[in-house]
Specification:
By secondary structure, the chain is α/β, with parallel strands linked by helices. The chain has 13 helices and ten strands. The protein has a six-stranded mixed beta sheet with strand order 1-8-7-6-9-10. The two termini are 33 Å apart.
């Protein structure tokens, strides 16, 4: 086991312990207009909180109050998909449309990224057509090339290194459930994936502790881990690394896992299933967690990763988490493309 940070691990919280001030950022204090969104490593705590506040504000005004907010009217987004996705495509297309804009879906057959045209040239071309580019790609370097050539914001819809738009949805879901993020302990059980990397780049900034259980040989990237240790020390949170899932789950408020076999790893499936034996998240895993523990998964999910009993239980927040992909991509788009400030007074986020 390896631990970093000064804060004691959270032994459990009650829903009554809400700290609304956690996300009270004065309107206008944060301006993200024109920024690229490739990794949460590049965003401060206040900037991440701002996106979450905008997302919660839009959800309240549009979903719960029935308001029409054409904040992206006349704007368009180009969506490059080297990898398929239900949630990323649907959340972006429906979210941009709901805000009065238009999203255009581009597959590898449509765009031939980096084949018939350099990635940099494609970025320049798309900058003349669209107000933002969301790209779901194999290599993170592709995103960096797009951002280097683009004159409009480039958003990481997923890369081999990071998946920041998923983490925004996770944070909003936990904020809605607990009323505050500060002091929560999140446990990751599974592979050292892009999801884990993005959690490592954000949780400490939110005042959250992180416990990680990965099989030997499946640890997080060493460079990302080094930065996670630095952030943990900077923000006074705990970072614990182990290969024992039950040890990692001790006292956790949130249990999280992801696929054991990502797209492109199909040939490794048999070996991976053997290596991840004992890593399925179940109600038994939660028996050592905090009394108020919940479960998250970015989906799609397979039974070997999480038991049906847990996945469909009241502990599971996976479907609210999935819906929040829409509200957070909306909040992110609005933050990067407009000067909008949340209108809901004293928003509890």
């Amino acid at each position: 086991m390896f631990a970093v940070g000064r804060a004691p691990l959270c032994a459990g919280r009650t829903l009554q312990r809400t700290r609304a001030a956690n996300f009270r950022v004065a309107p206008g204090a944060v301006n993200l207009k024109g920024r690229h969104f490739l990794t949460l490593r590049d965003f401060s705590a206040e900037e991440i909180k701002h996106v979450l506040r905008v997302s919660a504000d839009l959800k309240k005004r549009i979903k719960h109050e029935g308001q029409f907010l054409p904040l992206l009217q006349g704007k368009s987004a180009a969506m490059i998909f080297e990898k398929r996705s239900t949630r990323t495509r649907m959340s972006t297309e429906t979210g941009v449309s709901l805000l009065g804009g238009h999203a255009c879906f581009l597959t590898p057959q449509d765009i031939h990224l980096g084949v018939n045209e350099s990635t940099g040239d494609t970025a320049r071309v798309l900058s003349g057509f669209a107000d933002a580019v969301l790209a779901r790609v194999h290599s993170h370097s592709t995103l960096e090339e797009l951002a280097s050539g683009a004159s409009v914001p480039v958003i990481n819809g997923l890369s081999d290194r990071y998946h920041p738009v998923q983490i925004l949805a996770d944070l909003l879901t936990l904020q809605e459930h607990y009323g505050s993020l500060e002091g929560l302990t999140l446990t990751w059980i599974g592979d050292g994936t892009n999801i884990l990397h993005s959690l490592m780049m954000s949780l400490a900034k939110m005042g959250m502790n992180l416990r990680v259980a990965t099989p030997k040989g499946y640890e997080a990237d060493s460079g990302v881990l080094q930065e996670a240790r630095r952030l943990s020390q900077q923000f006074g949170t705990a970072l614990v690394l182990t290969s024992d899932p039950m040890e990692a789950a001790q006292g956790a408020n949130v249990l999280v896992t992801d696929t054991w076999v990502s797209m492109g790893q199909e040939k490794e499936k048999a070996q991976r299933l053997r290596d991840f034996q004992g890593y399925q998240v179940t109600m038994q895993t939660g028996s050592v967690a905090a009394p108020d523990w919940v479960f998250l998964h970015c989906l799609p999910r397979k039974p070997e990763e999480v038991s049906d009993e847990l996945f469909y239980s009241s502990r599971s927040l996976v479907f609210p988490e999935s819906e929040n992909r829409k509200w957070t991509i909306m909040g992110l788009m609005v933050s990067l493309l407009t000067d909008y400030s949340p209108q809901t007074p004293q928003l509890k986020i």
